[in-house]
């Protein structure tokens, strides 16, 4: 790509990119190195000499290559992209990047799990981080969100407690990247404001199929301020164009072993294939006058604003279109902060947000080693930046001149603050009054109504999954009292949940309780989400002597719908049809696994070996048990018959290849088929 075609951030990064291939090896001082396999020794059997500056430099650099991982969200993966607004949002905010539909703002998005270490598996049950850095002309704006719209706690002062309880227990460092243990659930039972978030965490939302198929939320209530100074409360939403889809729990656990990199691989490959992930940006707006018009406090981060009451206005779209060049330099060193705002976007008194405004810079100081992390290529704004800050570890810029203070006369009092008209950030002049107290308003104390709203809004299958998730998690808890406390806590939400879970874990089942909220918010159910076949992976199981022409017809048809077939067989290499058509095999039964596909297409063939059929049937049965679409033609149909999975929902067979392909693509679009 020519430099003119690149967006501003990409152009800026270009000046830092280095290509080492084809070059001579040098030290960091630029000295050409003549030998890189033997240290400098006193004699060919003697000790290494201190004098060996090349050895010392190489080893010292290596010894210092690790930086502290993020205390939360350590396991993450990122990509570059662009954001465009559909039409000006001028009525509500003066943020420049939300004004002009012809402007494309470069973005960098990092997705993450929360609890696990940097090397942990990606499909664990957890919230997902969804952090976006917009490189705007007015400075960097960070929307540091999650894929769940509420949070466990209402006040940031409890965050260290929450995270200590969630992380592996300190005495034995078990378990990794799991909430299914005593301390986490002990925290939950003793901090009942977490009830709503726990409902989401136990739902399918916390085992997403892909980063490309999950929503993002700013969680807190922010403020939009327009040119006239008028403010609105605002909540941010990212809506994935492919819809919201999840794995099933058994599958998620197996994928964690078979491919711990499942989500990053999916994102990386999609972008490499040109299937660019897209998300629409939505905003919910409440006018300042309506601050007290709802049955929740707009400042409470454990509450949603039901979309049916406060509609989500879609204002723009983000497209992720470029993978990083270097994960450490970009993904690891990117520093997000909810306090990175631009004029037109401001804060509210949400006590969780207020605490975050402190924590993020603080954490970068230890993680990135000092106050100059804004100079790292990935963190630099694309607009100019000037101030009187100097020095510190790793300083890059060479600030010229005598003056590094304000006010001054020597440099005509520059760099000078900008007026509001010149783009200077002016904080929204909210009136604040009060005594210094360590308390929380009564309006934050209803912990169960929205947890019940969430429950009411789930389909029967989603409810079953929540019961199963609680039964799994509490089933792993050793402490009987903690188990019982959690059951008693969720009896406040609904007995339909608390009772079956109590039975599953041998706790005593509550007989009374339950919130009387009967409201439903259909937007909360994934069943009502967009369903498309695009980018779904189909494992095509095939042996030899199949009808190559017909298989080709099916695959071509599936590909026109955006579906991606990959061949699975007993061996790698080429398999030949009876008509001489050949297909290159992508995975064997050993290297592939049904859990790594969205659907299976069983072609069969003239199976010569019993073991082939056994392996194929293992795949088929597992995919069926995970409610996946299964298609079969030719010999494949007889295999399905053998294991009695024909004429079931989402199992498509056929002799006319065109009709079969259409039906199968339809079944793939449905994602899962629960009624089997
Ligand atoms: Fe964070 N969070 N957080 N968080 N958070 C961090 O910052 C913190 C919260 C979120 O990909 C840390 O750079 C506090 C809510 C994401 O680099 C740290 C509180 C939401 C990421 C931190 C919260 C988030 C972080 C660790 C309670 C959703 C990953 C490393 C008030 C709106 C960003 C870092 C990335 C990361 C603190 C709660 C989202 C320690 C104190 C609520 C997506 O600063």
Characterization of this structure:
This protein is α/β, with parallel strands linked by helices and 676 residues long. It has three domains: 52-169 and 207-373, Catalase HpII,  Chain A, domain 1 (Beta Barrel); 448-527, Catalase, four-helical domain (Hemocyanin, N-terminal domain, Up-down Bundle); 531-669, Class I glutamine amidotransferase (GATase) domain (Rossmann fold, 3-Layer(aba) Sandwich). It has helices at 8-14, 53-63, 159-166, 182-189, 195-201, 249-258, 262-272, 328-332, 351-367, 449-457, 460-475, 480-491, 495-505, 548-560, 610-625, 635-642, 657-669, and strands at 76-85, 105-113, 128-136, 139-146, 216-217, 222-225, 231-240, 278-287, 313-323, 345-346, 537-542, 564-569, 573-576, 582-585, 587-588, 599-604, 630-632, 651-653. It binds CIS-heme D hydroxychlorin gamma-spirolactone 17R, 18S (HDE). CIS-heme D hydroxychlorin gamma-spirolactone 17R, 18S binds next to strand 2, strand 3, strand 4 and helix 9. Its EC number is 1.11.1.6. Keywords: Heme, Hydrogen peroxide, Iron, Metal-binding, Oxidoreductase, Peroxidase.
